[in-house]
Structure to design on (177 residues):
């Protein structure tokens, strides 16, 4: 979802091993997300990509593999069912695979709700397991208070941890990039 949805779309365009995908609350034209009423995380975007392609075109390259696009009504993805998805759907139909691509929209803000996740579970069950059903219930999960979760992880790194961290992540200078 969100930035992960963006990364999913990039992978859909270039990685042949992906069998099915469900980018969530990120699908739109680049222009929509960049121009939305608040600044967006530009680190999610390949520099100059808009000179060559846009998200619907990248996603259409995934055809005829199954793809589920999930968006909402309160962010830049709100226009996708009418701007972008019809183009992708037409490409799928050229492959005779119109049933392999879906778009669902929820009346929520920028979120990845339980209803969205359950729709995604059912989508993957259908296309990866051959089990067709409308939704797949998400099991109830007990969410621990933040204080209790903080006790489970390693402590915050300190200066004495820097040599170990530096050995794992060597420094790269700008001239090496």
């Amino acid at each position: 979802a969100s930035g992960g949805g963006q990364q999913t779309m990039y992978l859909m365009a270039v990685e042949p091993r992906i069998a099915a995908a469900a980018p969530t609350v990120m699908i739109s034209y680049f222009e929509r997300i960049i121009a939305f009423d608040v600044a967006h995380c530009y680190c999610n975007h390949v520099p100059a990509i808009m000179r060559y392609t846009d998200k619907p075109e990248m996603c259409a390259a995934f055809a005829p593999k199954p793809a589920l696009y999930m968006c909402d009504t309160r962010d830049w993805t709100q226009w996708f069912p009418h701007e972008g998805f019809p183009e992708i759907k037409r490409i799928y139909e050229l492959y005779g695979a119109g049933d392999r691509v879906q778009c669902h929209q929820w009346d929520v803000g920028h979120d990845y709700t339980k209803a969205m996740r359950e729709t995604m579970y059912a989508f993957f069950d259908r296309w990866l397991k051959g089990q067709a059903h409308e939704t797949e219930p998400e099991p109830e999960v007990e969410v621990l208070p933040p204080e209790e979760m903080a006790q489970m992880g390693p402590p915050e790194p300190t200066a004495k941890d820097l040599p170990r961290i530096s050995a794992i992540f060597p420094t790269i200078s700008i001239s090496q990039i």
